[in-house]
Design brief:
The complex is a heterodimer. Chain A is 74% helix and 3% strand. By secondary structure, chain A is mostly helical. Chain A has a two-stranded antiparallel ribbon with strand order 1-2. Chain A is globular. Chain B is an alpha/beta fold. Chain B folds into two domains: 25-145 and 281-352, Response regulator (Rossmann fold); 149-274 and 359-382, 3-Layer(aba) Sandwich (Rossmann fold), CATH 3.40.50. In chain B, the strands form two sheets. In chain B, strands 7, 8, 9, 10, 11, 12, 13, 14 and 15 form a nine-stranded mixed beta sheet that branches. In chain B, strands 2-3-1-4-5-6 form a six-stranded mixed beta sheet. In chain B, α4 links the parallel β4 and β5 (122-123). The longest helix of chain B is centred in the first third of the chain and has 21 residues, at 2-22. The chains are: A mainly alpha, B alpha/beta. Chain A binds chain B through residues 3, 6-7, 10-11, 13-14, 55, 109, 113-118, 120-121, 128, 133-137, 139-140, 208-211, 213-216, 219, 223, 250-252, 254-255, 258-259, 261-262, and chain B through 38-39, 41-42, 174, 200-208, 210-215, 218, 228-229, 232-233, 236-237, 240-243, 256, 258-259, 262-264.
């Protein structure tokens, strides 16, 4: 029973990291229709930037600031200089962002070198809670709380604010939105930056567990894509549900179906695609 | 003043001429396949530097033949590894191939080279899966650092015999190297009376080890082998979860000095098998480490030492052939050489498998880093596990 409970917590905390990664991807794809294949690379950049600054200053929060500010700037440049010119051009978006995966990977290799680095848990979150023989790190509890806060904030932004309404109006009919005097370009840029910041923040917050290395972009992107597809594209609620489903089932699969652990996430992915191609909470576009 | 300048010019020219006349024979091309890009890209550059450093030490020539280094990148991929081997063989027409290092690339390129024409000597870097040898059809592929099974076997022996562990729980990454290393470690451990009470197999590239850590059974030690990225994550998550079983790794090359240093003091005390460490206390190694560090600005790596060892073996074989690079002659000579290298003394058995020195080390804290210090050694052993 203790093992089940410990694994449930492990699964939920892992799901929390998955949610923070996937929420940015889901937001950008769902709201703006941009296929950002560089999302995993943004995650990696956030992890490296945060680890570097936190390591230099010995301050975890400055690491958070570095990841957020750094990815704000990267997101701004990506959207304004490149992707802003490629709306509704899915092939070009995919190729361009795929190119950035390699560019960012090599920049990381150049600056931080090829060795895997690990982030450090802040001292005040470094204690553990005993669950039988297993000591559950408090930092994992913190990740669950942070994930929930981010979920609520994004839900509030998307569903309860004027900007959220304008965002959704833009998706439905961009020209009509513009004709009504709404600065959709500004909103689109802000959403893309928010997605990039979420990716970077996930990278740094996850770094004490998942670390950082220049080759992590594609595996991270794959994981985020699975979560987003399982949960439903463009839905924050879907991203959360997808992350919990993948995180928890993956964690239990590692213990109880070890021979199939490599396929657990893909199995769920395939089943959802067959049964409900729009994802668990996704809606068919009219 | 002008007179001195002219004199200096004459001396410099004369020195240059002397070097040039010393190496006027047919150039010998040293090909190397390393990972400069991809997931194992941390291993490649120090290997190239190790080869450059050794070549510079001997004036880039041997027996009057200039030595030229040709570098190929396997991009940490088996298919690119084979492409790199093909290019070196057919286009660059190298006389020897040193590498690859990355496991899958080494297996693929190694097997390609066995049927290569001409059958130029291929000296694989680092210990490798024994399937490189099992599929053998040729006599030109060499494993100087032996097989993955050897690293596991001697680790298991040491854990039972010297550390006195009676029970072990194991974690391995689901790939040939994982099964070879941990499987052999367990076989040796059990042969010496130890008992393996649990085996957990993790998928390749695992990011979250928490479920495996929660399921870990109490034992005297944990024998683990996963690749470098997952190893960094595992070590951190292991200590974060308050686990205290002594860690035993049947191959230290997956846990980099830089990674241990960055994770911190918690990584002190891990026991691992190493084929080489900069802290190896021999005059030959000390001189090499000092010289390399001065020339390159950083300490040599395990992978670099393996490349250096392979180059020394090839150069020694060339001395036997009198500089003749005919593959059959060099391959035969390689089976007769015995060379002292910074990583220890090495030779080959009739199946091209290394006979050398293997070390058991412990991670220790130094003023500037955490590094592997030798605890014990197995000298001049066949670098493979005995047939089970």
């Amino acid at each position: 029973m203790e093992l089940v409970f410990a694994n449930l917590l492990n699964g939920v905390s892992y799901a929390s990291i998955l949610f923070i990664i996937a929420s940015g991807l889901s937001l950008v794809f769902g709201v703006m229709g941009i296929v950002n294949l560089a999302h995993g690379a943004l995650y990696m950049l956030g992890a490296f930037l945060g680890i570097a600054v936190a390591g230099l200053t010995h301050n975890f929060f400055l690491g958070v600031v570095a990841a957020v500010v750094g990815l704000f700037i990267v997101g701004l440049i990506l959207e304004r200089v490149f992707l802003g010119r490629l709306y509704k051009m899915l092939d070009q978006q995919a190729l361009l962002t795929l190119g950035f995966v390699y560019i960012f990977g090599n920049i990381a290799l150049w600056i931080w070198g090829p060795y895997p680095l690990m982030g450090h848990v802040p001292t005040f979150l470094s204690s553990k809670v005993s669950i039988g023989d297993y000591a559950f790190p408090v930092y994992r509890f913190a990740l669950i709380v942070i994930g929930l806060i981010i979920y609520l904030a994004l839900w509030w932004l998307q569903d309860k604010t004027r900007i959220g309404s304008q965002m959704k109006a833009g998706i439905d009919n961009k020209n009509m939105t513009l004709a009504m005097g709404i600065n959709y370009g500004l909103i689109a840029t802000a959403i893309f930056i928010l997605g990039a910041v979420m990716g970077g923040l996930a990278g740094f917050l996850g770094s004490p567990i998942l670390g950082a290395d220049p080759e992590m972009s594609m595996p991270t992107l794959l994981l985020a894509l699975i979560v987003v597809v399982v949960g439903g594209l463009g839905s924050i609620h879907g991203a959360l549900l997808g992350a919990v489903v993948i995180g928890v089932i993956n964690t239990f699969g590692n213990v109880y179906f070890q021979d199939f652990a490599m396929f657990t996430a893909y199995f769920i992915f395939i089943v959802v695609l067959i049964v409900k191609p729009t994802g668990l909470l996704g809606k068919k576009k009219p | 003043m002008k007179k001195y300048l002219i004199l200096a010019l004459i001396i410099i020219t004369a020195a240059g001429t002397t070097t040039a006349t010393a190496a006027t024979g047919k150039p010998i091309k040293i090909g190397t396949i390393v990972s400069l890009t991809g997931e194992s890209s941390q291993t490649g550059p120090p290997q190239v530097d190790a080869l450059k450093y050794r070549l510079n030490l001997i004036g880039n020539q041997i027996l009057g033949h200039p030595l030229q280094l040709v570098v190929g990148d396997d991009a940490s991929s088996p298919t690119t590894g084979v492409d790199a081997a093909k290019k070196l063989l057919m286009l660059d027409k190298v006389d020897v191939i040193i590498g690859p290092t990355m496991g899958a690339a080494a297996v693929a390129a190694g097997n390609f080279m066995k049927t290569a024409n001409p059958p130029i000597p291929t000296l694989i870097t680092m210990a490798k899966s024994s399937i490189v040898l099992q599929r053998s059809t040729g006599q030109n592929v060499f494993l100087p650092m032996g097989t993955d099974k050897s690293t596991g076997w001697f680790t298991g022996l040491y854990a039972a015999d010297k550390l006195g562990y009676k029970t072990a729980t194991t974690i391995l990454e689901d790939m040939v190297s994982g099964w070879d290393k941990v499987g052999s470690a367990v076989a040796a451990f059990q042969k010496e009376g130890g008992k393996s009470i649990q085996q957990q197999v993790v998928p390749s590239g695992t990011v979250d080890f928490s479920s495996y850590l929660a399921a870990l059974k109490p034992a005297d030690c944990l024998i683990i082998w996963v690749t470098p990225g997952p190893m960094a994550r595992f070590v951190q998550q292991y200590y974060d979860a308050g686990k205290k079983l002594p860690l035993v790794i049947p191959d230290a090359s997956v846990l980099f000095t830089k990674t241990m240093t960055q994770i911190g003091d918690r990584t002190v005390g891990i026991v691992a098998e190493v084929n080489y460490t900069t802290l190896l206390d021999t005059p030959l190694n000390k001189a090499w480490v000092d010289g390399f560090t001065k020339a390159m600005g950083y300490r040599p790596t395990i992978q670099g030492a393996s490349s250096d060892q392979n180059l020394l073996l090839y150069l020694e074989a060339l001395k036997i052939t009198g500089g003749d690079t005919t593959p059959a002659k060099v391959n035969d000579a390689l089976r007769r050489v015995k060379v002292d290298t910074p990583a220890g003394t090495v030779s080959f058995n009739s199946q091209n498998l290394g006979i050398g020195d293997l070390y058991i080390a412990k991670s220790v804290k130094l003023p500037d880093r955490i590094d592997w210090q030798v605890l014990d050694s197995y000298k001049q052993v066949l670098l493979d596990a005995p047939a089970q």
